[in-house]
Amino acid sequence: MKAKTGLFVLPLLFTGCLNLNLKQILPSVKDYDLNVGAIEAQTCKSTLSVGLLEVLSADLYNTKSIVKRTLGGEITYLKEQKFADAPTNMFKRMLFLQAPKHCISISPAPYANAPSTLQLNVLTLALLDDNTAEVVLDYTLTTGAESQHKRIVQKQPIPKEQDLSQIQALQRVSLKAIDQLLAQIEQITPKKEQQSKDEGLKGPKLNKPIF
């Protein structure tokens, strides 16, 4: 009976020692969000309403692993840091959080009352081997029957002497890209809405009677 008990206990002890050794050998992995810093309050006379269709990304970048890319196209990943969520979800949250600063209200579907809709595509979110962090976004803003397609490219140098400088560079460059996107929407949308209002005030064109 004692022999059987010993045979049963030994594997458990071995498993426990193995797990302990693995924890000691493997470095701890820390999770990071792209959304950092305080959200600024903004007093707006009027707010632009924009419906968010979707946030898309290539599978290569829509991962919790933080991508490192060389000029030759080689892909590796950071070993001790990763994202807390998929980049598409983090950029979507960033839009919701930063939009009020630009007097814009971003609404998820359904958005029946939004005169404009937005679709965002994350083309690049990576650390480059020239010691920079890069974000490339494509977006389509549609108002009525008219659509505008634009691309935003932002880069951020990575200071070598600072701890967590790679993560901080990705956070800063992402925020810059979203701020640039929202600033462009802020400039484009009022012109379109005012043009629609002016056309509505003028009313339909009437053909002059011919005598």
TrEMBL record:
Ranges annotated as biased composition (Basic and acidic residues): 189-202
Alphabetical list of InterPro entries matching this protein: ABC_trans_aux
Domain of life: Bacteria
Domain ABC-type transport auxiliary lipoprotein component intervals: 41-185
PROSITE patterns in UniProt: PROKAR_LIPOPROTEIN (PS51257)
Gene3D superfamilies: ABC-type transport auxiliary lipoprotein component (3.40.50.10610)
UniProt-annotated stretches for the region Disordered: 189-211
Protein name: Putative
Taxonomic lineage from the root: Bacteria, Pseudomonadati, Campylobacterota, Epsilonproteobacteria, Campylobacterales
